[in-house]
DNA sequence: CCCTCCCTAGTCAAACTTGACTACCTATGG
DNA sequence: CCATAGGTAGTCAAGTTTGACTAGGGAGGG
């Protein structure tokens, strides 16, 4: 699963109606150009792709009001909302993923009801543990793990990483169950996009730490 | 950095001389089709690319001895060996990476001298800690971390992940400094490829746990 | 002897990603 | 009043990845 579809769908959805440059700005506001592969080309490509698949509706619009070429505005469709929620659920649940998917999942989790988010995170832990025991049981040869030599270090890395993720997930579950944050249906939804004309406090130039290069 | 170049260079290098299907089999033997993006198309593409860049030398060969289309054999060049070692060093050092790069780095680290491997891993820890403090210092707004709301959980994830990796790296350094494994120049090098005709004990069909789906 | 299945070895189109590039408009300083 | 820097909005070619597909040969069963 690539994070870009989720990010773009989520941005358009929070906006209600947005053109490509707005989405691009939101993702930059979120720092996503640094912790995900959200480059201009990918964003415009994703918008076109999503429109082609009926997840976004494209409005052809007259030349921009603020200079530059004419622009296309997008709105999320019913099918798109379904897909968005499906992607959020998948990102929260599955242990398949890169940092960008996980980060996006957390950013969007408030769009689910609190109970469901907790259930999905518990399922996540279950899958991590399942995977962990598959590693330890399947790969350890008869004669003990020493037989593997340095290759055993790879499994060690996998197990260590899995444990750390399970632990972090557990902490998050506790905080959510303890009443933290405002989930779907509990009040004003959290909106993290830039309004028309609002300036981006995290605009380019500054070096952000999400950047793992 | 994508893991595929490193994996393919490493496989050809251990073989001395190999055609695409052999590389494919080695990667399957290593389980790489499950913990990396090593699909047939990617492997053949990488081989051609590496040959074009002068990192591999391609021998055009007559029709296969065992059925199927004619095949091309590859050998690593001097430039290719340099690039291979550069990639191993980079993979060991940088905190940029996905599981596949890390796993490959461990698999190949014995091709470096012991002292260098330790130095690179220490540098890795230094970079992780640098990144960690960049996250905590840069992203925490005035008014405390509570201001961020659920977005703070993303930074929490990053920090937690960084700490886990630093810890794991530290453990690996200790074991290496304690004399574990046989590094470059210390004796018979470790060879993890299938000989001609040798059967792959991890052949397809079985489900491997590296598969994180 | 023939049919089917599987292994060998690889190709290919479609989708996705990357990074550089274009074109237009506004504000600003000299 | 002019040029020039910078923001707006997006395109494009080149490179990479994916997953399905091809085509030939041998093994084994009936």
TrEMBL record, chains A, B:
Gene3D superfamilies, per the entry: Winged helix-like DNA-binding domain superfamily/Winged helix DNA-binding domain (1.10.10.10)
Taxonomic superkingdom: Bacteria
Pfam family membership, one: PadR
Domain Transcription regulator PadR N-terminal span(s) in chain numbering: 8-84
InterPro entries: Metal_resp_DNA-bind_regulator, Tscrpt_reg_PadR_N, WH-like_DNA-bd_sf, WH_DNA-bd_sf
Bilayer-crossing regions: none
Record's protein name: PadR family transcriptional regulator
Species assigned in the record: Streptomyces luteolifulvus
Source species taxonomy: Bacteria, Bacillati, Actinomycetota, Actinomycetes, Kitasatosporales
């Amino acid at each position: 699963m690539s994070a870009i579809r989720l990010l773009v769908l989520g941005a358009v959805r929070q906006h209600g109606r947005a053109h490509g440059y707005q989405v691009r700005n939101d993702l930059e506001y979120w720092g996503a150009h640094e912790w995900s592969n959200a480059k201009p080309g990918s964003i415009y490509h994703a918008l076109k792709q999503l429109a082609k698949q009926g997840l976004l509706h494209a409005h052809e619009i007259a030349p921009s009001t603020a200079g530059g070429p004419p622009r296309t505005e997008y709105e999320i469709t019913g099918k798109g909302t379904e897909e968005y929620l499906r992607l959020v659920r998948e990102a929260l649940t599955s242990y398949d993923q890169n940092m960008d998917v996980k980060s996006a999942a957390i950013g969007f989790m408030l769009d689910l009801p609190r109970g469901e988010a907790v259930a999905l995170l518990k399922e996540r832990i279950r899958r991590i543990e399942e995977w962990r025991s598959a590693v330890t049981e399947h790969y350890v040869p008869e004669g003990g793990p020493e037989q593997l030599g340095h290759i055993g270090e790879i499994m060690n890395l996998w197990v260590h990483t899995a444990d750390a993720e399970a632990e972090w997930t557990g902490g998050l579950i506790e905080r959510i169950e303890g009443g933290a944050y405002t989930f779907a249906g509990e009040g004003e939804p959290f909106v993290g996009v830039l309004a028309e004309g609002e300036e981006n406090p995290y605009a380019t130039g500054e070096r952000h730490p999400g950047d793992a290069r």
